[in-house]
């Protein structure tokens, strides 16, 4: 049997030889019958392949004529680069096509946002601009001091009635008026009418005046007691200062038993102790002269008890007056406030 290499060589030889040469002798026909049978099948397929190869060469030759000339080295490099990029792109597209398996992601809970408390805005403190007090002249200071003293002196007390016959007559006849006469003219006519009154009529007016005095005293005392004692104390101080400033000879003080008393001297205490015994010796002036003479005749040892008593009264009186002054200043300081006020009447006491 022929080997595979021998068979292949025989087939090539048969395929390339013409058919006329294939006619062999009868002697060799039987020997090569098997080979011819095989070569027929092989030759037919070989001629078919030769024809298809010839047509393929023609087609490729036509394509090469129409195609552009290929670049030399650079084009080959470019084609290699493009092939590499195409390969990378294809790998990328393949990678893209493969959808990655998504892992289940747990959603985080949103943190609870606490509402902030509203911040209260601080109110802007507006500073009050205080006007500077103008400096007062000495005359202005004096007038202001007089106004304050008059207010403190309580010059306006309860309303008083007419205290005498003439005042009663004026109150009865001059208060009205027809409006045609002035007050001075009405007073003149009232004076003439009063002088023409009889004695009995004048006595009746005088009796009314005396009754009014008692009523006035009661009203004044009730008004004084309605005020604190420190207010009365400061009123008497203010009345003394007004009398000095206005140069008045007489001072009208308000009498109140609650006010502190001034201390007596040693001589005054001795005279008081001797007053009852000397009351039968004569008038008050005589009693005073006799007691003063006895005081001067006393020794120092006899005067000592009265001096000690006077010193104790003086200390006590000074303390009481100090307390009254402090309380009075606080009282009038409170009266200067809008809520404060002192009740007063229309007429002076």
Describe the structure.
Keywords: DNA-binding, Nucleus. The protein has 349 residues and is mainly α. It has a domain at 262-338: DNA Binding (I), subunit A (Orthogonal Bundle), CATH 1.10.30. It has twelve helices and no strands. It has helices at residues 4-16, 26-29, 33-66, 73-97, 138-152, 165-173, 183-195, 199-225, 229-245, 266-278, 284-297, 300-335. Helix 10 packs across helix 12. The chain starts with a helix and ends in a 14-residue tail after the last helix. Mean pLDDT is 75; it is low at 21-48, 61-78 and 345-349.
Secondary structure elements and their pairing?
Elements: H1 4-16, H2 26-29, H3 33-66, H4 73-97, H5 138-152, H6 165-173, H7 183-195, H8 199-225, H9 229-245, H10 266-278, H11 284-297, H12 300-335
Helix pairs in contact: 1-3, 5-9, 6-7, 6-8, 9-12, 10-11, 10-12
Biased composition (Basic residues): 65-77, 94-122
GO molecular function: DNA binding
Biased composition (Low complexity): 78-93
**Uncertain stretches of 5 or more adjacent residues:** 21-48, 61-78, 345-349
Query: Rg from C-alpha positions?
Result: 75 Å
Strand content: under 5%
Distance N to C terminus: 178 Å
In helices, the fraction of residues equals 55-70%
The string of secondary-structure elements, in order, is HHHHHHHHHHHH
Q: Name the CATH class of the domain at 262-338.
A: Mainly Alpha
Shape: elongated
CATH topology of the domain at 262-338: DNA Binding (I), subunit A
Class by SSE composition: mainly alpha
Largest sheet, if any?
none
- The whole-number mean of residue pLDDT values reads 75
The number of distinct helices, counting runs of at least 4 residues, comes to 12
Give the number of DSSP strands.
0
Named at the architecture level, the CATH assignment of the domain at 262-338 is Orthogonal Bundle
């Amino acid at each position: 049997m022929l080997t595979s290499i021998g068979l292949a060589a025989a087939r090539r030889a048969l395929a390339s030889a013409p058919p006329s040469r294939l006619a062999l002798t009868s002697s060799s026909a039987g020997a090569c019958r098997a080979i011819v049978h095989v070569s027929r099948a092989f030759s037919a397929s070989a001629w078919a392949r030769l024809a298809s190869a010839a047509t393929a060469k023609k087609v490729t030759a036509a394509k090469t004529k129409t195609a552009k000339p290929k670049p030399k080295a650079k084009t080959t490099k470019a084609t290699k680069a493009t092939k590499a990029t195409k390969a990378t792109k294809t790998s990328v597209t393949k990678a893209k096509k493969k959808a990655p398996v998504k892992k289940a992601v747990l959603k985080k809970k949103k943190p609870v946002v606490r509402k902030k408390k509203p911040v209260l805005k601080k109110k802007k403190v507006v500073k009050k601009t205080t006007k500077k007090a103008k400096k007062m002249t000495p005359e202005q200071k004096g007038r202001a001091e007089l106004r304050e003293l008059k207010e403190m002196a309580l010059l306006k007390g309860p309303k008083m009635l007419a205290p005498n016959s003439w005042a009663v007559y004026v109150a009865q006849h001059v208060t009205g008026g027809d409006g045609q006469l002035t007050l001075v003219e009405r007073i003149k006519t009232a004076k003439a009418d009063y002088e023409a009154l009889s004695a009995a009529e004048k006595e009746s007016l005088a009796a009314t005046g005396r009754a009014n005095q008692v009523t006035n005293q009661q009203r004044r005392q009730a008004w004084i007691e309605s005020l604190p004692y420190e207010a009365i104390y400061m009123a008497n101080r203010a009345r003394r200062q007004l009398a000095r400033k206005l140069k008045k000879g007489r001072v009208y003080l308000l009498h109140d038993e609650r006010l502190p008393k001034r201390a007596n001297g040693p001589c005054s205490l001795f005279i008081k102790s001797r007053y009852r015994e000397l009351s039968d010796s004569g008038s008050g002036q005589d009693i005073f002269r006799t007691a003063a003479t006895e005081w001067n005749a006393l020794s120092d040892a006899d005067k000592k008890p009265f001096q000690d008593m006077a010193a104790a009264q003086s200390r006590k009186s000074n303390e009481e007056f100090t307390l009254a002054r402090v309380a009075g200043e606080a009282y009038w300081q409170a009266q200067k406030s809008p809520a404060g006020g002192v009740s007063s009447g229309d007429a002076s006491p």
